Amino acid sequence: MKILRQLLIVTSMATIFTAACNTAEEKTEPANAAPEAQMKQEKWGTVDGKDVYLYTLTNKSGATIKITNYGGIVTSWVTPDKNGKSTSIVLGFDSLSGYLAKPPYFGAIIGRYGNRIAKGSFKIDTTTYTLAKNNGVNHLHGGDKGFDKVVWHGLTKKSSPSSTSITLHYVSLDGEEGYPGNLKVDVTYTLTDENELSIEYSAETDKPTVVNLTNHSYFNLTGDPSKTILDHSLQVNADKYTPVDKGLIPTGELKEVKGTAFDFLQPHTIGERIASVEGGYDHNFVLTRKEKGLELVATLSDSISGRKLEVFTEEPGLQFYSGNFLDGTIKTSNGTAINKYAALCLETQHFPDAPNQPAFPSTLLKPGEKYHTITKYKVSVSK
Ligand code: BGC
Question: Which residue minimizes the CA distance to atom 7 of ligand 1?
Answer without folding.
Answer: 115
